[in-house]
Amino acid sequence: MTPNRGGVLLARGEIVLLTLRTTKEPATDLGFLLHKNPARAQTIDLPFGQAHVFWPEATPSAACCALWVVVDPVALVRGKADAPGDGPLAMYVNDRPYVASSFLSVALARVFGSALNGRSSERPELAQTALPLRITVDVVASRGGPAWLERLFGPLGYTVDAQRLPRDETVPEWGPSALHRMVLTHEIPLMTALRHLYVLLPVLDDHKHYWVGTDEVDKLVAKGEAWLAEHPDREFIVHRYLKHRRGLARRALGQLEDPDAEDGEDLEDLEGTSVPGEPRLERPYKLNDVRLDRVVDVLRSAGVRSVVDLGCGEGKLLRRLLAVNEIDRVIGIDASPRALDVAARRFEGPRVPLSYAKRLQLLVGSAVYRDPRLDGMDAIVLVEVIEHIDAVRLPALEASVFGSARPQMVLVTTPNAEYNVRFETLPAGRFRHADHRFEWTRAQFEAWASGVAERHGYTVTFEPIGPLDEMVGAPTQMGVFRWSS
């Protein structure tokens, strides 16, 4: 047994830093979600050490996956000068091998990256399924005691059980330990739980082992976009996650408040060029503007009078639709109440024509469920929506939009996977956005769309959107469905 810098007795090499346990049968499905085989242990090399994955329990009724991260503190500081004020041995005698920190967050992303991004290739429906989870982190730093653990994880729906770890009793003057064993229980999708841990573990530790720059803002917004903006301690979380760099914190808070805004963009600047989750690699092309303008042109040419923007997000397309005087009814539907709140704020204030509010309706809803509120509308638009839906749920979308609502026109845009090779900063085999469940080639999209049209009495035509490359096509592809019966 060896005391760490805080005096807590820990056995190096015997500490399991994190376990994930579920009892939802068959519990071994957890292996599909984590992309880890319960029948074997694995070791993954990390820049700062190694991660070991093994399964203490794997039965149909209960499964537990353990992640043990071994950090080599000497290797981390070899060749570096001592940190000012910490003494000559501070970088060598420390708690880094034991305390859950940014090291564990990096390990989670490296070892469980598919689960963190919500992808499960063999069982895709599992990614969005809420599981009864019991998450144990053996050592977390919380100088605010158990109350801080409750304050961070409680608002997210977790039941928090924190046990303070004892210090070395031979040195009573050290006082109470700041280290705790934390157990979290919740029924929640695994992806969501991993994202909470990814952000909040470094926040608790208040120390990051790597340089924090603008890319960390993007990571924070991506991992926190569905929950962080509503957290009562979001400012505390953002400042700690970004190592108290005020400029980066302001930028992150601004993007969480308004995902369309960049570097202080005013909410009333309604004609911004980005969309929630729009890949940075698309922005030089102003591809979102091109997409939305083309969608509006097609709808205007068809003479539609009522339109549903299904998956409207924060309302960029809604603004353009309302600017067309011939369209007298617009419905924006999204699964995120926060996104709809941002959209509503776009249509407030003296710069917004009064007629917009009279013609606009914002509703919470989903593309994959039957919704009678869509009945009787002339057109339904799905702009960059289908690729965010698990492929196994596309038949439900098809039934909802084409089978039940059955508008005169449906417009669907989606990335053209063939064009990805033209994005120099996009690694081979990667999707444009971490939340994409798939990206189709032109042939794949046309095969799906043609099948949908044939099954439901529509005709469909296709057109490219964006700069056209004679080898790989355009970055975006659009299907225009017209009711033919």
**Can you count the helices?**
15
What average pLDDT do the residues reach? 81
What is the distance, rounded to the nearest whole angstrom, between the alpha carbons of the first and last residues? 78 Å
Give the overall form. Answer: globular
Helix content: 25-40%
- Proportion of strand residues: 15-25%
Low-confidence stretches: 1-14, 79-97, 260-278
**Biggest sheet, strands in spatial order?**
4-5-6-3-7-9-8
Structural class comes to alpha+beta
Number of distinct beta strands = 16
Q: What about the largest sheet?
A: 7 strands, antiparallel
- As a whole number of angstroms, the C-alpha radius of gyration is 25 Å
Your description of this structure?
The structure is a single chain. The chain is built from 15 helices and 16 strands. With 485 residues, the chain is an alpha+beta fold. It has a 7-stranded antiparallel β-sheet, covered by helices on one side. A hairpin with a 5-residue loop joins strand 1 (2-3) and strand 2. Helix 6 crosses helix 8 (234-241). The N and C termini lie far apart (78 Å). Residues 1-14, 79-97 and 260-278 have low confidence and may be disordered.
Give the key terms.
single chain; 485 residues; alpha+beta; 7-stranded antiparallel beta sheet; 7-stranded mixed beta sheet; 15 helices; 16 strands; globular
In short:
The chain is of the alpha+beta class and 485 residues long. It has helices at residues 30-34, 73-77, 102-111, 113-116, 146-153, 190-205, 214-224, 234-241, 246-257, 287-302, 316-322, 337-346, 354-359, 394-405, 442-456, and strands at residues 2-3, 9-10, 18-22, 42-46, 49-58, 63-71, 130-141, 159-164, 179-189, 306-310, 329-334, 360-364, 379-383, 409-415, 458-465, 476-483.
